[in-house]
Design a protein that fits this description.
With 299 residues, the chain is α+β, with helices and mostly antiparallel strands. It has one domain: Methenyltetrahydromethanopterin Cyclohydrolase, Chain A, domain 2. Helix content is 34%, strand content 24%. It has a 6-stranded mixed β-sheet with strand order 1-2-8-7-6-5, with helices on both faces. A 6-stranded mixed β-sheet has the order 3-4-9-10-11-12. The longest helix is centred in the last third of the chain and has 15 residues. The protein is globular and about 55 Å long.
Amino acid sequence: MRASALRVAVSRDESGARLIDCGVHVTGGLDAGMGLAEVCLASLGRVSLAAGDPAVWPGPAVAVHTDQPLLACMASQYAGWQIAGERYFAMGSGPMRALRGREPLLEQLELLDHCEAAVGVLESGRLPPAHVCRHIAEECHVDPEDLTLLVAPTRSIAGTVQVVARSVETALHKMHEIGFDLRAVVSGFGVAPLPPVAADDLTGIGRTNDSILYGGTVTLWVRGDDAQLQEIGPQIPSSASSDHGQPFAVVYERYERDFYKIDPRLFSPAVIQLVNMTSGRSHRFGTVLPDVLRRSFES
């Protein structure tokens, strides 16, 4: 009954793994997307739809908040697991990453977990074949029967929602990369416009990235020194990148569709506000670019 209401399909494949299709062969929807995003956050954050700012984009926005930013975003939501098999590829998120524990980010932040069951989210246009499910289960040190994978392509409603719900995560990852101690981050809130669902995954990837890069606004409550926050603040927004200012699809084509040639400093929200709980002062950096969003969303 719940699956029917969410327009998702639940099945077991020949490996024994439970698969939840949120948009590959089914329609899925907004509720499925919010649930998918909360699974990415290991249920340590909440995702909702909100009225968007008409000056940024005339449509709804995806809001996310968490009081466990390190665990929810870095240990779980960050898409740090590239899952590749014979004729199959997906970006992996969710609590299963900490079970696997084989990422430099997790090792650096000491974010490892042990559990008898694994849950993960795959961003892919196909359901994983049995041999991929077995591989994921083995990497997570669980039996395939104890593995649950939720799957949605970026070109689906649910897939679009779950990617846009990554505004806080992108801010935290950027701060970690520039040397800020994420243990000083107490809570996070982010909002980014929900773009139109794309007809293909490539356009969907461009639109969802642009939503955060040029329309995302994140507020983080931190403990620290105001002088340090003023120093690192300008390095956090997407505007710190030399690739900033063009729709993601344009940048992607410029680098011959090689994702890893893009300046990594681009991947962060348009605006970051740091609320210093030590001093009571707030620091705001970056700006939204509605014109770039319109170029992306209307293409």
